Structures
1.
Amino acid sequence: MTKSFIPVFRPALPNGPEIAPYIAEIDARRHYTNRGPLVERLEARLAALFGHREHAVRTASSGTSAIEVAILAHAGAAKAERPLALIPSFTFAATALAAERCGYQPYFLDIEANSWTLDHERLARHPVLARAGVILPVAPFGVLPDMRALEALQDATGVPVVVDAAAAFEAVVGDQAAISDRVPLTLSFHATKSFSSGEGGAVLWNEPRGQARVMQAANFGFFHSREARVPGTNAKLSEYHAAVGLAMLDGLAQRRADWLAVAGLWRTHSAGRDLGGRLHLSPRLSSAYVLLEAESPRQMERTEAHLYTGLVETRRWYEGGLHVQPHFTARGRDPMPMTESLSERLLGLPMAHDLDEEHIVLILDRIAEAASTSLRDTA
Ligand SMILES: *Cc1c(COP(=O)(O)O)cnc(C)c1O
């Protein structure tokens, strides 16, 4: 076999000819942004796919700006008495950066061992709630938190909840009840996510008045006039990005079949093998991720190094959690036993909708080799 580099993720978006009919429409119409017809069509098609009315989906220019406008629309900008945004440390930097753009100070929480999301019962009794203006649970790797439990948490505490579900596109397609009328959730359409418009995102919320505020916040705070009335930003998706998203929807049935087949290959070839840990993949996770949860930090390092010398790229997707990243270290936080344990053991493996079977076997062989070396070490 040729020894070639295997990247951790290799996106494939619609190609030129697939996007071309939509670009021709833009050329003819000369309507390029500000909620043009392609943006409206993309929102309507996504809403239908999710089993909801059209207002339930409002696009944004990125997953990060979707979080930002959802916070502004649901919780508003930070107020002096409630300056904190409660955020799991086990997430991508965007969650906390979006909260900061709305004036909040992140306060980091640990996650629960099995769900990888916030422990709602513990959070409901947390003393820091008295100073919290918003709670931002996350769907790590596309694993959706329990939306009914989050509605109950919002009711019990009076603190608005916005869910960063950036990678949860497939989970939302599979579960109509994921979209709430009370708790907005946001998606990312970045190229590394399983549904992409290049850059882009959306707020999913079955609440027409709330979604009107989302559109207002995404358009400089304007509403039926050019007067800034509320805090806002420019988070509008352009017609060009909507064109890519529409072409991606045209090919979605095939793409989903491809993802299913590749996940099946991972499952078949890993069955019964000692990998020094266990694999996590779709349908629990987004199809864009395959993760090895190693038995120990040492085992993870050994596996990472052995894959690296075999030209297999891996990634610690959330690094060591946000609480240890330089920009965030001074922020308030809880103790982080689960976040620390998981981030030292969770290794992102290569995934792509067209990942070769022989590459999957090669990767699994190297992981098994790293596991058997460790047995010899400890013998
Ligand atoms: C991808 C991702 C984001 C950021 O989305 P962008 O579209 O890149 O802005 C935010 N949060 C999580 C959990 C993500 O995975």
2.
Amino acid sequence: MFLSEGHMHQVVFSLWFCFYLVLIAAQDNITDPTEVEALKAIKERLIDPNGNLSNWIRGDPCTSRWTGVLCFNETLIDGYLHVQELQLMNLSLSENLAPEIGSLAYMERLNFMWNKITGSIPKEIGNIKSLVLLLLSGNLLTGSLPDELGFLSNLDRIQIDQNHISGPLPTSFANLNKTKHFHMNNNSISGKIPPELWRLPKLAHFLLDNNNLSGYLPPELSKLPTITY
Ligand SMILES: *[C@@H]1O[C@H](CO)[C@@H](O)[C@H](O)[C@H]1NC(C)=O
Ligand SMILES: *[C@@H]1O[C@H](CO)[C@@H](O)[C@H](O)[C@H]1NC(C)=O
Ligand SMILES: *[C@@H]1O[C@H](CO)[C@@H](O)[C@H](O)[C@H]1NC(C)=O
Ligand SMILES: *[C@@H]1O[C@H](CO)[C@@H](O)[C@H](O)[C@H]1NC(C)=O
Ligand SMILES: *[C@@H]1O[C@H](CO)[C@@H](O)[C@H](O)[C@H]1NC(C)=O
Ligand SMILES: *[C@@H]1O[C@H](CO)[C@@H](O)[C@H](O)[C@H]1NC(C)=O
Ligand SMILES: *[C@@H]1O[C@H](CO)[C@@H](O)[C@H](O)[C@H]1NC(C)=O
């Protein structure tokens, strides 16, 4: 095929224009699509009486400032922005926490304190290896503590106090090498404290008052100045 010089210019220009568009698209930082889907699933499973999450449909979670969604300020090596924190306390949210929450794989702080959330703590939270703070105090959560929470090797603090959690304390909590604070008071946790938990290396606060535990308080734990049982 023969192209005139004019046509040639058009073709070259079009190619450059396409290249330019690709460059622009590459610089446009967006949230990891898996995390966007997870956030949509989380919203879907909650009742939000004040409409605080009504902007969770507009644009991109990290760049359009979805309420309570805090992201890392830079893209990671995979080229995406990632959710660092969910800060959703005191919003009267009810219904359940979707298991997709476990796909927020880079999250460090999860805060749903003082809502009216029912159902159990999703075991998928145990997949969030980066989690430092797990804050679920003051809800209506039931069911037992998932063993998977013991896999959270970076956890500093677990606060599940003032819920209706039942069942035993998981022995897997003995793996929580970095956890300083366990606030688990005012629930219906039962059984004995697993002896494996007596030697948690970073333990500072271990609150278990107003539960349904049996047996005795291990001497190792009672030496802690701040323990309540
Ligand atoms: C949630 O919604 C209520 C009612 O509109 C409002 O007063 C409150 O400031 C909102 N909170 C957040 C964190 O957006
Ligand atoms: C992002 O945050 C990190 C750590 O807080 C900081 O060192 C870095 O300078 C920030 N980057 C930008 C682009 O703001
Ligand atoms: C995308 O992120 C990179 C690295 O974090 C940054 O240098 C660049 O300015 C960002 N681009 C946009 C459009 O925000
Ligand atoms: C959230 O609610 C709790 C319990 O009602 C209250 O003690 C706390 O001050 C509230 N926090 C905020 C930030 O509104
Ligand atoms: C916790 O620390 C001990 C002692 O450093 C180590 O042997 C163990 O493997 C650690 N456990 C986990 C789950 O990292
Ligand atoms: C915890 O439970 C005790 C005993 O049922 C109760 O007196 C106390 O008010 C509860 N604390 C909170 C903060 O709900
Ligand atoms: C505590 O355990 C007893 C005996 O199993 C049970 O009858 C009672 O309902 C439990 N109480 C709570 C608050 O879970």
